Design the sequence.
């Protein structure tokens, strides 16, 4: 049951990280080019990968395996561009609902590429899960708000697609590789790609502006968040390796959905600048319905 414990711990950590992401995007960056965080994220990720590598004394895989792990990390980095863009128009709880698509995508990829079967029961689960984000989008009362939600939804679906590809590469293409090595080179690939993306002129310009006006809040939240994300990545990906990928993904996403929803309400009441959830009755009811649908769909799939 170690994989289950790891997945729940990862879900809790990511739930906290989601609100830090929201705080950085809305408060520190004020919704303007939050992707500029990559200028700082990259060095932090690389530093963490080096420190963890020295502590864990992980063995070095062969060149092909290192390349695949770095590719896995690079995909995570590129996918997060869509994620940060989506957060400009979506709250942390709403974004988490879209993560429930990942176990569905795992099963689809396993069916198309690895010849694993999909049952009619699982197809029903897919449909139920897909209803969750649709409910959230169409409970937005204003047409403009709904268009913004659809745009954010498209970005989040793109993010989940890329994240699923990243996880599949790490799980399927590194058989026999020590898990410590999987994590370290994945993290290094993510940090390296963040550094490269950080050279985009508009990102560097926005980074310099924030460093000038909010240096302590910016640097502090970035370091804290990347440490949390690295810890969550480590526990989650280890859970994927020692468990069944689709099941581990489903448990993690369901737990994260519930925890983020509860944290969103609590934090928005006691610390509005951090929680930043819209606590309108119809939106809360829509999120409750979406959470229930996701959990039911995941149970049916499994």
Sequence:
């Amino acid at each position: 049951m170690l994989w289950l414990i790891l997945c729940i711990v990862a879900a809790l950590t990511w739930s906290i990280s989601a609100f830090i992401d929201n705080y950085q995007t809305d408060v520190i960056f004020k919704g303007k080019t939050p992707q500029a965080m990559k200028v700082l994220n990259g060095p932090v990720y690389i530093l963490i990968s080096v420190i963890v590598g020295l502590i864990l004394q992980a063995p070095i895989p062969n060149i092909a395996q290192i390349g695949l792990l770095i590719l896995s990390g690079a995909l995570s980095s590129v996918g997060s561009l869509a994620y940060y863009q989506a957060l400009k128009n979506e709250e942390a709880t709403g974004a988490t609902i879209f993560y429930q698509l990942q176990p569905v995508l795992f099963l689809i990829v396993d069916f198309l590429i690895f010849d694993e079967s999909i049952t009619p029961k699982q197809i029903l689960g897919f449909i139920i899960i897909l209803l969750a984000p649709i409910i959230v989008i169409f409970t937005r009362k204003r047409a403009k708000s709904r268009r913004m939600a659809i745009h954010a939804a498209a970005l989040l679906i793109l993010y989940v697609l890329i994240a699923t590809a990243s996880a599949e590469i790490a799980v399927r293409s590194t058989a026999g590789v020590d898990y410590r090595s999987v994590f370290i080179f994945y993290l290094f690939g993510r940090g390296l790609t963040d550094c490269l993306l950080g050279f985009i002129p508009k990102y560097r310009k926005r980074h310099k502006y924030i460093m000038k006006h909010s240096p302590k809040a910016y640097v502090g939240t970035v370091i804290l968040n990347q440490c949390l994300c690295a810890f969550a990545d480590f526990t989650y990906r280890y859970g994927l390796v020692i468990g069944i990928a689709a099941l581990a993904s489903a448990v993690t996403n369901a737990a994260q959905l519930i925890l983020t929803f509860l944290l969103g309400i609590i934090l928005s009441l006691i610390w509005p600048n951090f929680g930043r959830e819209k606590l309108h009755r119809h939106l809360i009811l829509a999120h409750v319905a979406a959470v229930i649908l996701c959990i039911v769909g995941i149970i049916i799939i499994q």
